[in-house]
Fold this sequence. Notes:
The complex is a heterodimer. By secondary structure, chain A is α+β, with helices and mostly antiparallel strands. Chain A has 5 domains: about 1-285, no CATH class; about 285-370, no CATH class; about 375-520, no CATH class; about 525-655, no CATH class; about 670-780, no CATH class. Helices cover about 50% and strands about 15% of the residues of chain A. In chain A, the strands form 6 sheets. In chain A, strands 9-10-7-6-8-11 form a 6-stranded antiparallel β-sheet. Chain A has a 5-stranded antiparallel β-sheet with strand order 13-12-15-20-14. In chain A, strands 1-4-5 form a 3-stranded antiparallel β-sheet, with helices on both faces. In chain A, helix 2 (about 20-40) packs antiparallel against helix 4 (about 70-85). In chain A, about 35% of the residues are buried. By secondary structure, chain B is an alpha/beta fold. A 6-stranded mixed β-sheet of chain B has the order 6-7-8-3-9-10, with helices on both faces. Chain B has a 4-stranded antiparallel β-sheet with strand order 2-1-4-5, with helices on one face. Chain B has helices at about 40-45, 70, 90-100, 105-115, 130-140, 160-175, 185-190, 210-215, 255-265, 280-290, 295-299; strands at about 1-10, 15-25, 30-35, 55-60, 65, 75-80, 145-150, 180-185, 195-200, 205-210, 220-225, 240-245, 250-255, 270-275. In chain B, about 35% of the residues lie in helices and about 30% in strands. Chain B is elongated. Chain B starts with a strand and ends with a helix. The interface of A and B includes residues 94, 96 and 270 of A.
Amino acid sequence: MTSKNLFFKLMKEDLKRRLWAIALVSLGFFFFYPVVTAVLAGEIKQYVDYAKGLKEYTRTVTNWLSVECGMTVFMMMVTSLICGLSSFSYLNSKSKVDFYHGIPVRREKLYVANFLNGILILAVPYGICLSVAVMIAISNGVNAGGLCLVAAMAYVFHLTYYVLMYTVVVLASLMTGNLVVGFLGTMVLTFYVPIATALIMAYYEVFFLTFYDGVGISHPLWEAGVNFSPVMEYIRQVSCYMEGTFTLAAVLKAWAFSVVLTALGCFLYKKRPSEAAGKAMAFSVSRPIIRILMTILSSIGLGLFFWGIRSTMGWAIFGILCGGTICHCVMEIIYSFDFKKLFSCKLQLAGCLLAALAILTVFRYDLFGYDRYLPKESQVKEAVIYLGRLDDWVSYGSTQQREAGEEYGYYWQRQSADEYVFEHMHYPDAENVISLAEECVRQTQERRKAVDAHRIHRWEATSPIFEEKPNDYWFGSRVNICYTLNSGKKVCRSYYIDFYDRMRPQVQRMYGDAQFQKGVYPLMNRTADQVEAVRYRGEYGREVCLNRLSEDEKKEILETYQQEFSSTTIEEMEQEAPISLIRFTSQIDEKAIENEWKNEGEFDEVKISHSPGYEGESIVYEYTYDSYSRYNDFKSVDFYPVYPSFTKTLAWLKAHGIEQKGYLDNLIVSGIRIEPKEKERYYNYYYDSYESEEQEEEPMQYTTSDPGEIASLRKILASESLCYYDSFFQEDEVDAWMFMPVIEEENEEGITVSRDGEGPQYWNISVEFPKGKVPPRVWEKLGKQ
Amino acid sequence: MIEAVNLTKKFDDIVAVDHVNASIRDGYVFGLIGTNGAGKSTFLRMAAGVLKPNEGTITIDGMEVFENEQAKGRFFYISDDQYFFSNATPRDMMAYYKIVYPAFDEDRFHGLMKNFDLNEKRKINTFSKGMKKQVSVICGVCARTDYLFCDETFDGLDPVMRQAVKSIFASDMEQRHLTPIIASHNLRELEDICDHVGLLHKGGILLSRDLDEMKMNIHKVQCVLQEGMRPEDLIGLELVKSENRGRLWTLTVRGDLAAVEQAMQIAEPVFYETIPLSLEEIFISETEVVGYDVKKLIF
């Protein structure tokens, strides 16, 4: 009982000593929460519509008091530093140590009392100010239940990571004997591992041609590095919370770490010699460890910096020697506060420099064969293969409602292709994977020779053809392979290769595999119960929505399309161009589009009609779109191509009132321009008076406005925006555009072509000739012999 | 009883206290003397449980001091640079000490503060060095611990205050068997208060004796001997040292006072008188015996 009383009395006395910290934190939170909440409440009056004002206020205050408030995160970081360093600052003074360690109180009791006070100094003012802010918000009409829940979650969340960061600062404080060094120690404990991880990853990135840096998904090495930094982990979890991937396990993990670190802190406090007060480092054993770690890090850091500038081993070694020596000397000055001690540990310095040189050598000459890695076929359980640039048209992600409410609309939450593929692919054909990887490795070794021969960066030599055309910058395709070995270990490599020529058999085999398709195309994983409607783009600028389908109908069309799409071969895709696009929307997709239609007026015209042969209603949207899968527009994403060979799909659509004609048939075409690809020019302007172009200036160009010739060419031409949805479509060596007059108004004569001073105005779209389909007469006009 | 056995403390390569053996009896004033850097403060900091010995032990009635609440509750440690909370008043310090020393005598604290003419409500950081020392000592005696460790506590006290503090010590020793352990580099400060002294030098203890024993056993004799007689001719005297100015000899002799006087009477000198040695002189003599020039050690 006495002991318990003593403990609380010690806490109380310690708090008296730290009134400044309490006042500082309280003042900060007072202005930060109650004052801001009250100030924001004043904005409601600025709205004419009180309900809208209240809604806006609710949204702002909820964000402000929630987990995702960046300023709170900043406050927590600063407060953890202040409280952590002040909790045990007395250990840095001999007279204070004599005082505290001379009284009849066990050290662990002192430690726990001071440690807990460091948490209370934040927890109590934060809790009170947050509660007052919540009450202010509620008194201004904000829904009590929702806000209380948000604030409570934020309180627990922020307090969790505050404790974690605070514990690390305390550890740094205990390991050092000086406030400034304690601060530096905090920086080391907090950021050393992430910086070292980033540096090692940079070495992989710079020196290895096949390093997979986890585009779209975080690299495991980086993820591991973040685990060692409370600040980085805190930021990561805030991001997770905002993305909706936050879990309770993360909070529990943080508390578990905090408890372990607190226990470690108690152990260190007991072991910490009182004579360490005023010294740089409290424990002599930690001096060389920290020095060596810092010296090696600085060496390889500066080595990489100089390699980045000149790309020669000489400069890299210079960087290593400079970085290591400077860091070693600075550490010695900090340790000893004496310039004469700069080189008192020469052997350690030499060892660190040698270690850094060894690291550089291993990476520079790939001594462990990182780029040559090829597992045995029998070792591979399954693999993930991402073929870059092949399926760029596929949309990955989902429609999301904005958190503030439906009236604030929806957005397309994009997911990177890598991320999706790595989550969903389980390609089991080890033989094919190894065969593909062998070719990748072979090409990579050729690239390495080019890199070495020309002393260039890896990204300047992406292809074997570099040697043949040294002035060319060839951008190859990326192939990411991630093997899951039988042991469960995952090994990833990323290759820049020219796979069309040499890897066609492997790619063909891959695209014929159901598991591969499921990994690449989200539609192949979709089931009928996830489908709300079918949207179809069979004519330029016109989209039809079938949103009254029965469950059986949904199942029938989805499975029909999936079956036809999955059985399409590469050869078919090369020869055929898509004739239309189809999309299987979910409920939230439909809500989002409907919301856009009603509130934003995004569509030029919306008709609700009854199609012949289809009992339900179909909504026809007419609006300007370019058919490309715009990655952030939920109206244009997630479309899949329909080929002429998809007879069952087309038949089903016909049965439901949608008859497929030519995609570009509804366009009034006034002219067609054709140019060889070598003379590629881009027409980025919507309006373009093509006739004003002087043909003499562009001899390699053919433009026709002859109706007969236009009609014959239109039978061959395919829409470029549809061809975009065909990874393997082979176009001929020309670029072509159709020109259409801008229709301004109709008069008694029918169509009026608008004129702007000198001539008519036109808009154009890009079109493609399938390979070999450019008529000979056109080639003649283009001057081809 | 406080007992140090082979007590050793090293700071990196420096041996601050080197295998010290010492016993401090209860109810007596123990003086710990030595030059700067001799290891006095380190010894006291180990005795106070602030520092952990590298080797050996220091115990209070058989209890290890380091991290032992019970043992640490037996003493109050006043360091050479006693810490007071920033902006604290003597009353604030009393409040803190009351928490950690349950027997703290608050009434006596108020009384002593009044007697020493110190304002309890004034911030300590506005006090002079001597006044701060007084506050430390008042807190120390009011804590009512069995031992009081004073590191250079008398340094900075004026003679009046020194006497006042000594009288408080004497009173507490009489009333409740307080055992003050006083470390100082100034022998004159300890002379009239210490019962037992330990001389530390370079981390080791040169000697540890009862002051009375030393005083009783060594004497200074000023005499004028008969014509032609030299101090070496005096029979029955254990002569430690002799100096002369003309015919006036100053002799330092070891032995019982009565025996010394008897020997002198037998020699029938022209004149003689015995004079008590100062602590300083005793130390000079004693340490010279063991081969040290104490003037170099202490003064």
